[in-house]
Each structure stands twice: as structure tokens, then as C-alpha cells.
Prior knowledge:
Blueprint: H1 3-22, H2 30-50, H3 61-87, H4 91-115, H5 119-139, H6 148-173, H7 176-204, H8 208-229, H9 236-256, H10 266-295
Amino acid sequence: xxxxxxxxxxxxxxxxxxxxxxxxxxxxxxxxxxxxxxxxxxxxxxxxxxxxxxxxxxxxxxxxxxxxxxxxxxxxxxxxxxxxxxxxxxxxxxxxxxxxxxxxxxxxxxxxxxxxxxxxxxxxxxxxxxxxxxxxxxxxxxxxxxxxxxxxxxxxxxxxxxxxxxxxxxxxxxxxxxxxxxxxxxxxxxxxxxxxxxxxxxxxxxxxxxxxxxxxxxxxxxxxxxxxxxxxxxxxxxxxxxxxxxxxxxxxxxxxxxxxxxxxxxxxxxxxxxxxxxxxxxxxxxxxxxxxxxxx
Length: 296
């Protein structure tokens, strides 16, 4: 059963529970409040997964660029969820995110292997699969600070391998549209990489290497956002959506500043980067549609 189907079933079940309890519980009931929070989470997850889901038909080139790009994001999202569990930040949500991201990563890897139209793409997918098998075993284990440095290094290697797949598919596809899908999709990854590095600094403590990763990811996000905004292929819808991301990005800068006294705000950062992720996911789908139109 696909991730989207599982989320749909869960959402229906929770809505039915709310309906059953509505007549006997007040609107301030703790049980009902918990149900409503869970429904909100499920809807958010559904948006992320459904807008970039892998259907049963063979992927088009545009879909393949988008889907392969989402693998980069999922690699960082899984590591972020692992760190959130270790730091006890929204642990229930982090556990669900981790499980859903693992399922989705494997579904999309399988779909990309079916799609792979050339040996260079197949070879790069083989490398991703090899790295993933080892990384998977560690990412599902109980969070452990003692292996964190090694695990995060492996996670970066997985990210790099996923990125090479995107580049190979974009090169195979050709056209300016493929590059826009690539860059926009990379913004999804950077939102999660920023959160990952921030939470690692919060949980593990100061690290020059992680600090650099955090600063580099922020700089790369800002630079790519400017690049996307300047694209002549942008529709009015895309331009408006990018403006909303820019506004949120500027608003978020104060929260990204690391306090010398250790006054971190990991919960706020996790929420902010999630919101940016959803917005960039929608924009990447818009660019995918532009690419499809170019190829038709």
C-alpha cells in the first residue's frame, strides 16, 4: 500500500472519531484537541506526499526530475527526524515523519529504477541503493550521540549520490525546464538540511563542520531563490508563490541566528522549515508542468 493511501485511510479514521466524539465531548476536550492536532498533521503530510506521488504509470522525464529531486529532500528529512527523536523535539511527529519518509524513499527509488533510460542513470541509482541499504539500518535505530558524526557523514554521502541522479536525469531530459525543476526541488532539500543542521547543533553541541553545513545551506537557499525569481519561464502563479516563500524566508532569518548562549528554538525552526518545504514542493510541481509543456 502506498504512503498516500495509508495517510488517506488514517485521515478518514480520525475524522470518523471526531464525528463520534463531537456529541459527547466539548470543543475544549483534550481527546478531541489531540484528534484535531493529528488530523492537521495528516493533512500536511498528505499535501507533501500526494503532490509528488509516484503513480503506477512509467515516469515522464519531467516527473523523474521531480521525483529524483525529492529523494535529496527525503535523505535530509530522515536525518532531521532522527535528530528530533534524539533531542526529544516533537518526538511523536518525528517518528511518523521518519517512517513515512523511509517508505516514500524506497517507493521512489523503485520507480526511478523502472524509469532509468540510460546506463549512467542506472549506475548512479545503483550507488544510491548501495548507500541506502547501510544507512537505513542505522537511521531506524535508537538515536545515539556516539555514532552521530559518522551517521551524519554517511547521510551527506547519500545526499550527494541522490543529487548525482538528479543531474543525470536533468542532462538526459535537457531544456531550461529541467533545470528549474532541479533547482526548485533542491530548495525542498535545503529547507530540511537547514533544520537538520540546526537541530544537530542543538542536540550534539557546537561543531565547526555542522555549523558550516548550516551556513552553507542558508546561503545556497537564498541564492537559488533569487535565481528562480529571475527565470523568464515563470508564470504569474509561480512568481506569486516564490514571493510568498521570499517573505517567509526573510521573516525566518532571526530564528536561524544561533545564540552564543545556547538559546536555541528548535521547535520554531522545525515548523518554519516545514512550511517552506510545502511551499517549495508546490512550486516544483508548477515547474514540472512547465517542463511537460515544453516537451509536448
